[in-house]
From TrEMBL:
Protein name (record): beta-lactamase
Transmembrane segments: 32-53
GO terms of molecular function: beta-lactamase activity
Enzyme Commission (EC) number: 3.5.2.6
Lineage, top ranks: Bacteria, Pseudomonadati, Pseudomonadota, Gammaproteobacteria, Chromatiales
GO biological process, any: beta-lactam antibiotic catabolic process
Similarity remark: Belongs to the class-A beta-lactamase family.
Residue intervals of the Beta-lactamase class A catalytic domain: 134-271
Catalytic activity: a beta-lactam + H2O = a substituted beta-amino acid
Record key words, sorted: Hydrolase, Membrane, Transmembrane, Transmembrane helix
Length: 323
């Protein structure tokens, strides 16, 4: 896959299995490790933990072959890097990990992180920040409608309550509360109204850890962030995806610039007995230089991502006898 593949990682998503992430509890490191269990807690605390490489999953092999075909067809070009991640909540397994720790342009996929930074700030001891109706409207505009103006407004609110140093304050809040989740996240600029934001970064693994924590209610106001991400929108991982039911539920955020096509989210399906079988899907296609043909470029990359999402869904359908 033109050097795009790296080692896959198995096991529980390393956001940790116990306790809520980042509620500002006054406990020491030893107590924290005792509560959460060694490896998971160490990652949450920002410690450097070795990752054990494992054999490549069947799904990852299939995905690698598909992306190679897409490159051969010109749907993904040689100057474009990709990252892919799939985590199966039911089996507790990372099924796909390709370039997962490489920092990529975040674009609008960063917006749920901004929402989470707001809620971290609101939940800090003594905070006077409140989730008012007008703030809720801004949150919906930011995540559902991808409003850049609303995003800058919320980033400025977070900064105002955290030192007034601008966008970096959003990153500092996230890493203060959950350093093990936001490991490759770098937030250095507001998103301008024209959407030309190229300097904020995050990795597919950051999104995966974030979604794991969100689904398992390990972050403050996780239910509200999920609700916002679950509002109907124009995603690339369930809409117009071959073989995927039209009524499937997705909690997601897209990212689109002249250098980036991305989508990260949780796809909530059910098996034939009605039991939930959710999984995460993160896809990122990053171009080295801005395209001069944005409409054609983003459409083709979106369709390439839909092909990959279809492959993943069909694999999950067979594994879990999805309805």
């Amino acid at each position: 896959m033109s050097g795009q593949q790296d080692s896959g990682f198995w096991g529980a998503e390393d956001a940790g299995r116990g306790g809520q992430i980042g509620q500002g509890q006054m406990i020491n490191r030893r107590q924290f490790v005792s509560v959460l269990g060694g490896a998971s807690a160490a990652l949450l605390l920002g410690a450097s933990m070795p990752s054990a490489a494992a054999r490549q999953s069947a799904l990852q092999s299939q995905l690698v072959r598909l992306v190679k075909q897409q490159r051969a067809q010109g749907l993904i070009r040689s100057d474009e890097k990709t990252s892919w991640s799939v985590y199966d909540f039911t089996g507790g397994k990372k099924l796909v990990s390709i370039n997962e720790d490489a920092p990529r342009q975040a674009a609008s996929m960063l917006k749920p992180f901004v929402a989470q930074a707001f809620f971290y700030t609101m939940n800090e001891r003594g905070s006077k920040l409140r989730y008012t109706g007008s703030v809720r409207e801004s949150m919906e505009a930011m995540i559902r409608n991808s409003s850049n103006t609303a995003t800058t407004e919320l980033m400025q609110i977070v900064s105002r309550y955290n030192g007034g140093n601008g966008p970096k304050d959003v990153e500092h809040v996230l890493k203060r509360h959950a350093p093990g989740v936001f490991q490759q996240t770098s937030i250095v600029e507001y998103i301008p109204a024209n959407g030309r934001t190229y300097r904020n970064l995050a990795s597919a693994h950051d999104y995966s850890r974030f979604l794991w924590a969100l689904w398992n209610n390990r972050m403050p106001n996780a239910n509200e962030v999920r609700n916002l991400m679950g509002l109907p929108n124009h995603d690339r991982i369930t809409k117009r995806v071959k073989g995927m039911p039209s009524n499937i539920k997705v909690y997601d955020k897209t990212g689109s610039t002249a250098m980036l096509c991305g989508n990260m989210g949780i796809i909530e399906c059910h098996d034939r007995r009605g039991r939930p079988r959710p999984y995460t899907f993160i896809g990122i296609i990053e171009k080295s230089q801005r395209t001069d043909y944005y409409g054609t470029w983003i459409t083709n990359r979106s369709n390439a991502m839909r092909e990959v999402s279809s492959l993943v869904y069909n694999y999950m359908r067979q594994q879990h006898q999805l309805a």
